[in-house]
Design brief:
- It is built from twelve helices and 21 strands.
- By secondary structure, the chain is α+β, with helices and mostly antiparallel strands.
- It has two domains: about 40-145, Rieske [2Fe-2S] iron-sulphur domain (Rieske Iron-sulfur Protein, 3-layer Sandwich), CATH 2.102.10.10; about 165-420, Alpha-Beta Complex (Naphthalene 1,2-dioxygenase Alpha Subunit, Chain A, domain 1), CATH 3.90.380.10.
- Strands 13, 14, 15, 16, 17, 18, 19 and 20 form an eight-stranded antiparallel sheet that branches. A four-stranded antiparallel sheet has the order 6-5-4-7, with no helix packed on it. The protein has a three-stranded antiparallel sheet with strand order 1-2-21, covered by helices on one side.
- A hairpin with a 4-residue loop joins strand 9 (about 110) and strand 10 (about 115-120).
- The longest helix has 28 residues, at about 275-300.
- Bound molecules: fe (ii) ion (FE2).
- Fe (ii) ion (FE2) binds near residues 205, 211, 215 and 369.
Amino acid sequence: MDVHNIVMDDPERGIFRVHRSALTSDEVFELEQRRIFDHSWLYFAHESELRNPGDYRRRTIAGRPMFIVRGKDGEVRAFLNTCTHRGALVCRHDEGTAESFQCFYHGWTFNNRGELAGLPGSDAYAEAFDRRELGLKPVPRLESYRGMYFVSMDPGIPDLVTYLGGLRHYIDLTMDSAEALGGWEVVAGTAKFTIKANWKLIVENSLDAYHLPTVHQTYVDYMDTRLEAVGASRMQMQSRLSGQSNGVSYPRGHGGFLHFAPGRTIANLSPLWSESAQTEVTRIREELIQRYGVERGSEMADRSRHLLIFPNLLFQDSHTGFRFRQIWPVSPSELRVEQYDLVPRDEQPELRSYRLEWSRAFLGPGGLATPDDVEALESCQKGYGARELEWNDLSRGMHRQPLASDEVQIRGFWRQWHYLLGGRPAGSEAGDRPPAPVPVHA
Ligand SMILES: [Fe+2]
């Protein structure tokens, strides 16, 4: 297959199109596994899940069974989850705390540093059999940034900090914003669901502010009704959808959109919250400004961040809470979502329950947004059955300062995707204007 022309990128004319075979072809699907997922940094777990020695999480990353564990020595390691004897999975639960992992097939036992600690009948082996060589196989690369652990199958990949590049500015804002509240922690439980659509469709959808007033009309109406009922001001209602916003795109395919939401959680929902919760959010906002200054503090508190860490981690810090949403391809026409909510560790229980309630209500698998998005994505995938229509258009806002509702962040993703697949070299945002500076609201 010629992947060279699968993306049509014509900045002169302001035209950007993606050939639909990118979303349907088995061949593209195979290429993606080898050229993208095997050469990217992929999110694995958050430090709050690995607080104590022996804490582990089992996940499938890039199609490989793996687990990550904090060893007795305090160090975090990621291993391929396969016994070095005959291959059975040695870590058999999704999470827990363990001093060792015993293969249930023949009883080989590995400690939580990955060393082969024991095997039944070891006297049956010759002298050349060296158990030091038979420890669990580490994943080639493991690094962390601000409490987020990533792995890569590519031993030669640039370090994680370099890889994340300019996007770190926004990651830092979110991470710093919970520092005074004990840092972020993953709430127990993972939402997992599959959608009959290509994995890149939900990446696009999660970076897409253009569809909010159409696909999510039900949610908008519902919120309007609720806010009206408690006498919310027009300003509070309007800021929810029409506040200043813009799209950003960075090298290596990262990007996202930022949305003005004063007090991050409070302005949108405060009229529905108790007085004590409103007071607390206002206090947190003031504390951030005191701690980090007006510019940085208000950027933390007043702006939602919907980011993509290329290729498959959505970092969503918004009025509906903070979550990681990780996308995995299952087949050309099926994807799997795994999503984790995070809350500040020492936040008031009342605030925590408000945040979680809104996270579930909007982006949970049974919320007011996700089922509508699923319907849209599955509908697109069905539409691609009409093969005579070959191209998707993603040209919106290509020749102006990008707004959140433009598609600059989606083009950034596709350019990097195309580059890694073997297409034209990716400029960071070749052809599009540079991202607009983020306005600050005191
Ligand atoms: Fe949506």
